[in-house]
Input
Amino acid sequence: MVKLSRLNANLLKAHYAVRGKIVIRAQELEKQGRHITYCNIGNPQALKQKPLTFVRQVLALVEYPELLDRPETASLFPADAVRRARLILEKNPTGMGAYTQSAGMPFIRQAVADFISKRDGIPADPDRILLTDGASKGVQSAMTMLTSGPDDGFMIPIPQYPLYSATIDLYGARQANYFLDEANGWQLSEEELKRSVAEAREQGVNPVAIAVINPGNPTGAVLSRENIIMVIRFARENGLAILADEVYQENIYGEGLKFHSFAKVMHELNEKDVTLFSFHSVSKGFLGECGHRGGYMEVRNMPDDVWAELIKLQSIGLCSNTTGQVVTYLMIDPPGTGDESFALYEKEKNAILGDLKEKARILGEGLNSIEGMSVAVPHGAMYAFVRFDLPHPDGTDPEKMTPSERHKYESARDSKYCLRLLEETGICVVPGSGFGQRPGTLHFRTTFLPPKEEITALVEKMRRFHSSYRAKIEQGAVKSA
Output
């Protein structure tokens, strides 16, 4: 029998907070008949977001091609969905149940290159594009490739998405944290990047790459072009590759803000020495097709022999799933203005994005009205990283603790707070310690994906809970908080 003591130590070390102990407890409560509002993960369709009609129509036709030749199909499916399905089957004649090329279907990789060229006004090479099972698999491939020894390290933002910290642990690499500037809308600071890389090297870490999430998860921040230029310059000066997590590029809500891709800025700078891995996914944006596990990775400034090794790595897993590849294709090449599906597609897309923008406002303004809570109203993505304050129990002084003791203390506090929040209100959020936070601060991450009426109710439940929880600590009723 396999025992815990015989397992890979890297696996035992890894943690993935968004599906951790609090979520397991939420599922237990749900089995007992409790209504749970899951705000722990960006899973739009699980929170009542409807799939786009065009995407599901094309998928239905390519998965069951017999429909294409039935007379009733013309009345059930728009003509452009039928044409698109026929094109996919023509370009992929082996069908949806067969393996594709390791890098993905060539015509979809070309479509991704065309999408990038149209989005950014720059050339893109389909032979430097891989179709992946969601952005996560692309990130893991890049990190596998770049980790050549146990002292190799990755600079990751704090707070971060725990895919990064968990993958670093799994691969036996080292983590170098750089803190985002909460007081400045979670932007990046060059001084902080310099501090991070210097501290890492002092500790024997060899930084090989810097990860940047834009728009931010869990912060909802949108990086300025100036910030991106600074990161590219910093990467060049320090010999780092860049991992640009850009899966929320369609989710921009702040007035006057826009998404700037790392690829475009690097092209404008004529940067040839920094290797860029950029990632996109069908799980986010306005599609919310998380379960179909589709996405792509584009690579720039990589020699042919190195690219061949990346293709070899991809081939070990044979290929990404064909349905995810098709959904990626439909994401980056949607119906055009002359297509029958265009009007409905645009209506559904704009309704989803408009709803997200409104829910971000409702959540941000609502939580900021709660005494002892504060949050930057999200300008992008699907999340808010909420700061909350708690009094300390009598006799507890974090300033007298060692850094290790303080980290353990604060992690226990935000975890216990989120567990109590779940059990008393049915709201499932993730403790800030699961993403990382500055010492002396407490946070939780929440999505704003539930329906608007649930967001409004959620804010009021949090208001009552937070006031009550603080009072219990002051009265000594929550002794270990």
